[in-house]
Design a protein that fits this description.
Layout lengths: L4 H23 L1 H6 L9 H26 L4 H26 L4 H21 L18
Helix pairs in contact: 1-3, 1-4, 1-5, 3-4, 4-5
C-alpha cells in the first residue's frame, strides 16, 4: 500500500528535522550546542563523541526521507521515525527527572520532539498493528 499524503508529510518533517540536526552536530558541534547554551571544549575525544551520533541522526533522517519515495523503504522509514522521535523525548524526560530542569531551549527541543512523535503516531496509526506482508512467515490458510 502506497503512503498517504499525511504519512509522507510526517516522514518529511521527521526526516528533514533529523537530517538537519544531525548534519549540524556532525559539521559544527560547537555552534549547534552553543544554541542550547552549552560551551564545548576543543578536545578531539569530546567532539568525536558528539559527531558520531550526529552522523547517525543524519543517516536516520535520510532513511526517513527515503520512505517518501521508495515503497520498499516505507516500513523501515516509519520504524526509524518513531524510534528517533519517541526515544529522544524519553531520554530528555529521564534527564528532567534525574538531573533537574534544563534550559528553556532544551525544553523547547523536547516540545518539538513530542510534537513530531505525535505527528508520526497519528500518521502511521493505521499501519502500526499490521504485520509487514513481506516479512510475515505465516502462510494464510486456504
Amino acid at each position: 500500500m502506497r503512503p498517504t499524503l499525511f504519512e509522507k508529510f510526517a516522514l518529511g518533517v521527521s526526516g528533514l528535522t533529523a537530517l538537519t540536526i544531525g548534519a549540524l552536530i556532525l559539521c559544527a558541534p560547537q555552534t549547534f550546542y552553543a544554541s542550547y547554551g552549552i560551551t564545548l571544549g576543543q578536545g578531539a575525544n569530546l567532539l568525536s563523541e558528539l559527531r558520531a551520533p550526529g552522523a547517525g541522526l543524519a543517516g536516520f533522517g535520510l532513511l526517513m526521507l527515503r520512505g517518501i519515495w521508495r515503497l520498499a523503504a516505507l516500513p523501515v522509514a516509519m520504524a526509524v521515525a518513531l524510534t528517533v522521535f519517541i526515544a529522544f523525548p524519553a531520554g530528555r524526560l529521564v534527564g528532567l527527572a534525574v538531573d533537574g530542569m534544563p534550559s528553556a531551549s532544551v525544553i523547547g527541543a523536547l516540545i518539538v520532539e513530542l510534537i513530531i512523535a505525535a505527528l508520526c503516531l497519528a500518521a502511521f496509526r493505521r499501519r502500526l498493528w499490521k504485520p509487514a506482508p513481506s516479512l510475515s512467515t505465516v502462510q494464510p490458510a486456504r
